[in-house]
UniProtKB/TrEMBL annotation:
Species of the source: Paraoerskovia marina
Domain Aspartate/ornithine carbamoyltransferase carbamoyl-P binding residue range list: 4-131
GO molecular function per UniProt: amino acid binding; ornithine carbamoyltransferase activity
Keyword Transferase: yes
Gene Ontology annotations of biological process type: citrulline biosynthetic process; L-arginine biosynthetic process via ornithine
Record keywords, A-Z: Transferase
Protein name, UniProt field: Ornithine carbamoyltransferase
Pfam families, alphabetized: OTCace_N
Length: 269
């Protein structure tokens, strides 16, 4: 299995193949990982990503071996750690703040990125799959990301680079993503948007308050707009409670298919 550390590790055709495999596998028990083992490195606070990866291994007939990410914080060269692990497991899924940890392991064993401080590729891949189920024209839609230059936004920037998405960022000055067109008012960002994406901004103070996505603000979007906040989101912070209760909100539905996508990613082992 080639590693998936960044979305740009894939080709556009491979993205479509993962979506097709996710649709075929669904949540029905199978044997695509029969006789295989996957080491999962997750902190105790991980919820959605850990549950779906661990369940994906079990549904595929494989064995999941769980470790805290601190097990990788050692003086031993991680290339050597990866070589040793490759004797016993077929791949590793890692959530770790430092992406260089994953890069070093990937030289010795297949690695799937379950989130770093730099990016969150599987989260965005699953969101795109959810969008594709609703909108077959998903590659021609207008996407707006409301948030800062942090890991979720950078993963969407990777998706833009890989797939040629029409992606715009709405944020205050000073929080722009590298290489992504930015606007500095929420209304301008939402104007005509087909998909609205958000990330948590509460830790940044009040600077993002004018960018809170509300049901009223969504009226400036295209008909049938999809609102997909990245969890964990806070009602009343990056999104208002009435936006979450609006017909545009698809967050819970899209996270259901996270399991299918994690399973399809692991099936590449």
């Amino acid at each position: 299995m080639p590693s998936l550390v960044r979305l740009t590790d894939l080709t556009p055709d491979e993205v479509v193949e993962i979506f097709d495999r996710a649709r075929a596998l669904g949540e029905t028990p199978g044997q695509e990982l029969a006789g295989r083992a996957v080491a999962l490195f997750f902190p105790p606070t991980s919820l959605r990503t850990r549950v779906t990866f661990e369940r994906a291994v079990h549904l595929g007939g494989g064995q999941a071996l769980l470790f805290p990410p601190e097990a990788l914080d050692k003086a031993e060269d991680l290339h050597d750690v990866g070589r040793y692990l490759s004797n016993w497991v077929d791949g590793v899924v890692v959530r770790h703040p430092r992406i260089e940890v994953l890069d070093r392991l990937a030289g010795a064993i297949p690695v799937v990125n379950a989130m770093t401080d730099v990016n969150h590729p599987c989260e965005v891949l699953a969101d795109l799959y959810g969008i594709s189920l609703r909108r077959p024209d998903w590659r021609r839609l207008r996407y707006v990301f409301v948030g800062a230059d942090e890991n979720v936004g950078r993963a969407w920037a990777e998706a833009r680079d890989l797939l040629g998405l029409d992606l715009v960022q709405a944020c205050p000055p000073g929080f722009e993503l590298d290489g992504v067109p930015a606007v500095h008012t929420l209304a301008e960002g939402l104007d005509g948007a087909d998909v609205v994406l958000t990330d948590g901004t509460g830790h940044l103070g009040d600077v993002f308050e004018p960018f809170r996505v509300s049901a009223a603000a969504l009226r400036g979007c295209a008909p049938g707009v999809l609102l997909n906040p990245c969890p964990p989101f806070t009602r009343g912070a990056e999104v208002s409670a009435d936006a979450i209760e609006s017909p545009a909100f698809v967050g819970h539905e899209f996270k259901r298919v996270l399991l299918e996508v994690q399973r399809a990613v692991l099936a590449r082992i």
